[in-house]
Task: structure prediction
Amino acid sequence: MNPKLMIWISVLLSAVAQIFLKRGLTDLQAEGKRSPGVLGLVVGVIRQQFIWYWGVCFFVAMALWLAGLQKLELSYAYPLVSVGYVLVTFLSAVLFHEHVDRQRWLAVAVISLGVALVAGS
Result:
């Protein structure tokens, strides 16, 4: 597989993983049935399917990142991680109806411009 494609898929999967994690933790909080304390939290987390999806996405993303990074310059690959900020902000607004104000969207636009400049180099 092309190393650049590996990095891009890794970034995409990392963003999706964050959405799964948020969903799993939100579901856990909504259940409200867990036992108090750290052990109760751990058991609750283990039982959440979306947290398992997070783990799978995160593991695959990490494997792709490692494989892609072997063949690419870090100065190219690492700035692409910021695409995840853009994706998570967008997905949070769409899926969780989070309020993203104008200033945050402006920040996302600046990040996007930087990513476009790095990706085009």
Summary: DSSP finds six helices and no strands in the chain. Residues 3 and 68 are 4 Å apart (CA to CA).
